[in-house]
Amino acid sequence: MPVQKLKVQDLSIDTELLPKIESTADVLRTQSFIGRDRAVKALLFGLEMERDGYNIFVVGHSRTGRKTFTKHFVQEYSQKKPVPPDVGYVADFEDPQHAKVIFFPAGKGVDFKKDLEKVVESLTDRLSKVFEGEDYKARRRQLDEEFQAAQERYTNELIEKAKALGFAIKISSTGVNYYPLKDGKILSEQEFEALSDEEKRVYQESSKKVELLIEAAIENVRKLEAHYKEQVRDLNRYALLFATEELFSSLEKKYPYSDVREFIHRIKEDLVDKVSSAKKISDLEFYFRRAYNVNIIVDNSGTNAAPVVFEDTPTYHNLFGKIEYIEREGMLYTDYAMIRPGSIHKANGGYLIIDAYELLVHPFVWDRLKKVLMAKSVEIENLDTAYGYSTIATLKTDPIPLKLKVILIGTPDVYELLYDYDPDFEKLFKVKVEMDWELDADVNTVNDLVSFIADYVKEAELLPIKRSALEKILWYSFRLSGDRRKLSMKLGSIIDLLEEANFYAGKRDAKYIEKADVIKALYERENRLQLVVEKYDEMFKTGELMIDVSGKVVGQVNGLTVVNFGDFEFGLPVKITAKTYLGTSGILDIQREADLSGQIHSKAVMILTGYLGSKYARKVPFSIGVSISFEQVYGYVEGDSASLAEVLAIISAISKIPLKQSIAVTGSINQHGHVQPVGGVNEKVEGFFRICKLKGLTGDQGVIIPRANVKNLVLKDEILEAIQEGKFHIWTVDEVDEALELMTDKKAGKMDKNGNYPKGSVNYYVVEALKRAHEMAEEKKRGRKPKKEK
């Protein structure tokens, strides 16, 4: 197929795909999940699958609306699921270093906490009235007196029985002691030693009986004390029942749940202990307020469906909770009230959405998440305690059963990293949801895009968008996808454009967003990032960067590159030169020799060698040395998109036929000489047009691109106007020879059956040059002086 020069019609987008509306105000149907059929199906499967390990990983490129889509879809789905229970922690009265978990039906936890606080507020007064009343005091005195009387009785009995056996009993704070008596007087050690052996023997035998009496007395007193304490507990229990039964009964009636009943029972038992040992009831007021309370860590009172939690900063403590401490007199102190929940507790019973990259950058989080999901329960413990780095005694919490779906959102790179390097990942995240980055452009999908835009305009309260503005937005979508047949799914970028266009429309007090507002937004966005471009253009203008856009030069061609600064990329022409010489045959890539080229570029140069050898060195060896260079390029060169330009420069250098400098070239080639598509074609075309405009448009300038790249051209209006006016051109080629003819204004020449090219063709001159070079090389080997060319 011959070289084709593109017309404006070949480069226009099909605005007939848009619905017949005046503005987005006319759009009735909305489309929240545009182009997400595959993702919706996969995500729905993951949400409905209740088996272990079927957590979800949503994979998509940046700006494709992964997070928005996932959050909206999961929130819609969660409306069908029940609200999980409230969760709280309370004190363990038997073990101060332990906190017990307690569950409530959704919304009841906070209510119970408030009601319990009211009960505790009135508790001290009620108990004081009962325990400081005359009835209680009288009964307590009676118990005390009975205990003391019985204790004295046991003591007196012991004294009398010991005295009958010849011993005196003395009771002190250290215990019960006994001493030998004679004539009513306690014997000293010397007096006892002075006794006869018979008398000593009698005392020794009697002492054994006294020891038995003492043991029996102590045991009786112990039983007496236990009985006394039990009587006191019964008295206190009765008094507490009288004082608090109404309060606690109302709580149990209002909250008839097993966890509540058990907690209230433990409070009552603890009350008995604390009141029995307290000197004054008022001394217990602070204790009551601190101990008899609930720390509600999950409150679902404001929800009507399963929770959906998006954790945008998944640090260890944000995700798994923590136990706080306070300092008192140089000591760290904590209890159940200082337990703080994490996102995983708030999402329990529902769905937890996490950015996968953020999850991996925070230490220990991924490891702990895996353990929690495998165990299907979660304890609240600090990072240093969980991984054994702390020597401080801390609070132990009851584990909370876990029933939730974890949804990670990340790029393909993050997904592959986890899949390849962590065997647990595949077990825990069995559902992969892939987000497409582009969509086939047809009437239905364009309508869906317009519906999405209209939906966002209404939701974000933007101005309605006119049809002419929608045409430019459609152009922008094609531009983002890099294909006039594909709509971009980088919906985040489209939303940004809507917001910025709305801003400029608002500045002129418009009622609609017009095409001019969209163009203004695009221009201003690019202008904000063009400082580097202006610096390059200034160097082109002053000649510091040398690019010719007119005339013809042997062994020189304008190649096209794309410079990427992350948030902005632009095209930049570069002079590619080739030089020939006798000596070592083959192609010397200066960039590669200087270690300034990547592997793909190196491969492209090797392909050039194969192509040139198969085309021109069939009868004689390739005896010419060729060097190629990207002039004034001091950075890293990568990619194969310059291989068409390089081969043209080499052919020109060998044949001595000059190439047009008014035409820039991009495209990669294979060993057969077929021209293959390249990336960044829009930026490359616009980059050369910018320099031509800077140096002055002549009407001869333009760009050669692969024919397969025509679909990728989504050019700015300025270039389309120049093409329409004949000031700039775009040619497409399929073969190297097509580009060669356009660049030299000569026939390339086709090889005949004898392997010869037509005389006067470019390829003929290349073969002739190789023959001369070979002859000269052979003459040099034989030691003869090469013949001069006539």
From TrEMBL:
Belongs to the peptidase S16 family. Residues 551-746 form the Lon proteolytic domain. InterPro entries: AAA_32 (IPR041699), Lon-like_helical (IPR046844), Lon_proteolytic (IPR008269), Lon_Prtase (IPR027065), LonB_AAA-LID (IPR046843), P-loop_NTPase (IPR027417), Ribosomal_Su5_D2-typ_SF (IPR020568), Ribsml_uS5_D2-typ_fold_subgr (IPR014721). Keywords: Coiled coil, Hydrolase, Protease, Serine protease. It is an enzyme of class 3 (hydrolase). PANTHER family: ATP DEPENDENT LON PROTEASE FAMILY MEMBER. The keyword Protease applies. This is endopeptidase La. It comes from the Bacteria. GO terms for molecular function: ATP binding; ATP-dependent peptidase activity; serine-type endopeptidase activity. GO terms for biological process: protein catabolic process; proteolysis. The keyword Protease applies. Residues 133-160, 207-234 form a coiled coil. Its EC number is 3.4.21.53. It holds the Pfam family Lon_C. It catalyses: Hydrolysis of proteins in presence of ATP. It comes from Fervidobacterium thailandense. The active site is at S641, K684.
